[in-house]
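Working notes for the structural subgroup meeting. M.R. asked for a predicted model of this chain before we commit to crystallization trials. I am recording the input and output together here so anyone reviewing the notebook later can reproduce the run.

Input as submitted:
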Amino acid sequence: MNTVTLELKLPQETYVALQSAGLNREDLGLRATRDFAVQLYADGRLSLGKAAAMAGLSLSAFWMLLLERGVPFSKYTEDDYQADLDTVRNLMIARLQKNLIAQ
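Returned structure, recorded in token form:
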């Protein structure tokens, strides 16, 4: 999957406090990405599958994250289902093409 890197700016004192609490740069990046994915899903801007992919989690792990955060996943609509099917199809096609090129 192609990715885009975004920058997160924090006041230095906040970053130092977070480091003191045991959160390193990698932990903060992962947490920010997952929090953003949860929020985008809750706002209806990403389908369940796309939000899970953004968070770097399987669907079941993302469901658990939603449960932990108190975000309902029952808003899963027909459009979400179709978008997820399209994502799966595209991933399968990309994988098949990669395998054909490797042969």
